[in-house]
Amino acid sequence: MGEPLVLTFDVGTQSARALLVDRYGAIADLCQEKYEKPYYSKNPGWAEQKPDFYYDCLCRTAKELCARNGNRIGDVIAVTLTTIRDTALCLDKNNVPLRDAIVWLDKRKADFNDPYPAWKRALFELIGMGDATKILYQASPGNWIMQHEPDVWAKTAKFVMLPTYLNFKLTGVLADTPANMIGHIPFDYKNRRWMKPGGLTRCFCDVPEEKLCRLIPSGSTVGKITKEFSALTGVPEGLPLISTGSDKGCETLGLSVTTPDKASISFGTTATIQLAVKDYFEPQKFLPAYPAVIGDMYNPEIEIYRGFWLLSWFVQEFGTAEAQEAEKLGCAPEKILDERIKDIPAGSDGLLLQPYWTSGILKPNSMGAVVGFSDFHTRYHLYRAIIEGIDLELFMALDIMERRSGLKIMELYVSGGGARSDVVCHITADVFGLPVKRIQTHEACSIGSSMAGFVSMGVFRDYGEAAASMVHVKDTFEPDMENHRVYMEIYKKAYCKIYGKLEPIYKRLIDIYKRR
To answer: β-strand 101-102 against 48-49: which pairing, if any?
Structure first.
């Protein structure tokens, strides 16, 4: 054998990738398939996908990778898999899907017909979480299926997340790790097990335990690659599939965020800020910290549902000229826009944006807002204000988590499409007043997933040794502290006050919209 490799599958919202990763964090080869249609909608706000869509994409990327790499496939010592979160499937007794997958982007709502016991309802209201618990109940695809597709629910033997189903397709074993149990399911995140009957929040989605999958530790072997999957792809039969965790959890690990003085920021479709801690704490009330890929750690996280999707939205709605110019130059429109905004001063000359294009659980009445327009503002000011608004919201999230935990973050590691931009990284460093670090690859999620394979197979003693070998800081962006002072004045005197001032107006607008 040559240098040991891990074959990693990364199934995302927009594409699927198959990668060969070595123990030094280098990607020996990568095959990617971008989805022509990431989801379809039967009704406004719905997002579904054919149940074997992701598996078929995974098979095609694996087949291309294996065909291209000949003898190197013999150096693969393990397979790992990481996927998008909160994407649910109903399986029959033979583990065959009964309906299409409900994707995490789906915004359908279950009916809320006063399902909580009176004492729980009173308790939720007493602690000011009445509205939030209602939203959590309505957001569960399991509750919606129970109400609107009772025949499907009656035939459902297992209600699973996407990675659990893909584990089964690759190995014939229906099992998964706590680090993948991120969705609207009755999971006890602190104790890494299914909630006990009668648990306080089990009523948010009370799926019977017999319909839930078997749990195994992260880093353990799910099963062996089957003869069927091997025949379809060329991946050697009998290779172990090592359990890892969700895409965001693997991304945090792949950035070497394994100690409580660091934070991981993902500038993806959804923007998130995530920590890695030993002691469990809720990043926001009733919102759990997720089990990390490292078995004795947790990943507290706060997310912005429409994160760097907002930049794509801007290009589509306002960036036609840049898109046409970028096509001629053979680059991304965002690269041209970065050049246009880099000399706009911190604070976008008084233009301030709050990125609530999709409302959150704790701010159910939120809507996007842009304030401070003047006649000298251009669309480039708006583009910069989007970046600054996302960063200010992430700063607020970190401030909340630091106050709830007593931690102090000293450095930030960034990933996702937005992290490719030097301008975005500089603005982020200035907003937070902290150094921002970018590693050697944009495939941090796959690096983290591969780490689990190498550690499990004994190439590294632990994740600390794996991170030291596989993660290398390529760029460090130091903050301009004068810009940071400007951002903190904006944050304290303006940004923090926007939602409270505008919420009554948002409520009226939502009420008008509902009555149309």
So the answer is: antiparallel
